[in-house]
Write a structure and sequence with these properties.
alpha+beta; 3 helices
C-alpha cells in the first residue's frame, strides 16, 4: 500500500540555495537540519507575512490541518537548528 497521493503545493517564493549556519564553525563540522520547501513556504506565509492558518492553507492549495502539521514541523526544525548549533538547509523537491 502506498497511501494517499501527495497534493501538489503552491510555493510562491524560490527558496533554492538558502542555508544558515552558526558563526565561527565550519559547515562540514556541523550537523544539519533540512527544511522542506513547503515547510519554508509555511514559515514565510505564517510568520513573515502574518497570515492566518486558513489563509496560508488556501494560498498553498492544501487543507488547514495539513498546513498546521507543516508549520509545526518547520518551527520545530528551526528551533532545533538554533538551539543545538546546527546548519539549517532548505531541501528543494527534485
Amino acid at each position: 500500500m502506498s497511501g494517499r497521493k501527495k497534493i501538489e503545493r503552491n510555493i510562491e517564493a524560490d527558496h533554492s540555495g538558502v542555508c544558515f549556519k552558526p558563526c565561527g564553525i565550519r559547515r562540514k563540522e556541523l550537523k544539519k537540519v533540512y527544511l522542506l520547501e513547503d515547510e519554508m513556504e509555511a514559515l514565510r506565509l505564517a510568520d513573515f507575512e502574518g497570515l492566518y492558518q486558513q489563509e496560508c492553507a488556501d494560498k498553498m492549495g492544501i487543507s488547514r490541518t495539513t498546513f498546521s502539521r507543516l508549520i509545526e514541523s518547520a518551527r520545530k526544525k528551526t528551533a532545533d537548528a538554533l538551539l543545538h548549533t546546527k546548519a539549517l538547509n532548505i531541501k528543494i523537491k527534485e
